[in-house]
Amino acid sequence: MTEVLKIEHLHKTFEAGTLNENHVLKGINLNVEKDDFISIIGGNGAGKSTFLNSVAGSFPIDYGRIILENKDITELPANKRAKYISRVFQDTKMGTASRLTIEENLSVAMRRGQKRGLSRGIKEKDRIFFKNELKKLQLGLEDRLKMEVGLLSGGQRQALTLLMATLVTPKLLLLDEHTAALDPKTSQMVTELTDQLVLEKKIPTLMITHNMQHAIDQGNRLIMLHDGNIVVDIKEEEKRNLTVMELIDLFQMKSGSNLVDDSLILG
């Protein structure tokens, strides 16, 4: 196995030194291998989003190191990390530009990490490439390259966002509850597309989910956060054979706490 991401002693505190001080991440250590698709689960306030934001570079951390493919990116801001790290958010509007067309959005995504400059628009060879990629979505978008993205449904837009995030294969993909705002049928479609793209392009992935069953079903590894620490980390066969109730029991044994967030079970 090849290590892609190494996180060492990660700490993050908000409003330090005030009455509202909140020490959210408390020394997280995690090694991510090249073939890892890791589902991340935990109750409200466990630190899931703060953890993903720390990896993405959304804010500086208090202490620790984040190393991506042997490069220390701890001090890199989010815009610099975007060259290596792609992210899909829960909000279906966050990954695309509403007033740009589908092909314009894809063109921007294709040039991620490159120096900006003047060009003569979208070339025909790019359109052929875009159409072939869009066919993977099975939504008919390959015939709507000139349509403004703002006219798409939430599910179509999230599928396009996921395609854009992986158009140029990133070193790491972050999925921040990216199906939570979708109806069940559309959520299933985006889930299947996620599995397809991650497997096809062999992208190391960290995925937050609010649903224990999804965490068990997706990926090859599952970690559970509690009170700013990883309390459960299970892989491969052990993960696949788990039931939700067994996962709850494992969490309670490892954390010494009862799980009170019903959305994790029922979501």
From TrEMBL:
Which UniProt key words apply to this protein? ATP-binding, Cell membrane, Membrane, Nucleotide-binding, Transport
Task: Spell out the molecular function terms from Gene Ontology.
Answer: ATP binding; ATP hydrolysis activity
- Name the InterPro entries on file: AAA+_ATPase, ABC_transporter-like_ATP-bd, ABC_transporter-like_CS, ABC_transporter_ATP-bind, P-loop_NTPase
Q: Please tell me where this protein is predominantly located.
A: membrane
| SMART domains (UniProt xref) | AAA
Q: Which PROSITE patterns does the protein's record reference? A: ABC_TRANSPORTER_1 (PS00211), ABC_TRANSPORTER_2 (PS50893)
Q: Where in the cell is it found?
A: Cell membrane
State the membrane topology.
Peripheral membrane protein
Q: Which residues form the ABC transporter domain?
A: 5-252
Annotated Gene Ontology cellular components are: plasma membrane
PANTHER family assigned: NITRATE ABC TRANSPORTER ATP-BINDING PROTEIN (PTHR42788:SF7), TAURINE IMPORT ATP-BINDING PROTEIN-RELATED (PTHR42788)
Please identify the protein, giving its name as recorded: ATP-binding cassette domain-containing protein
Taxonomy of the source species? Bacteria, Bacillati, Bacillota, Bacilli, Lactobacillales
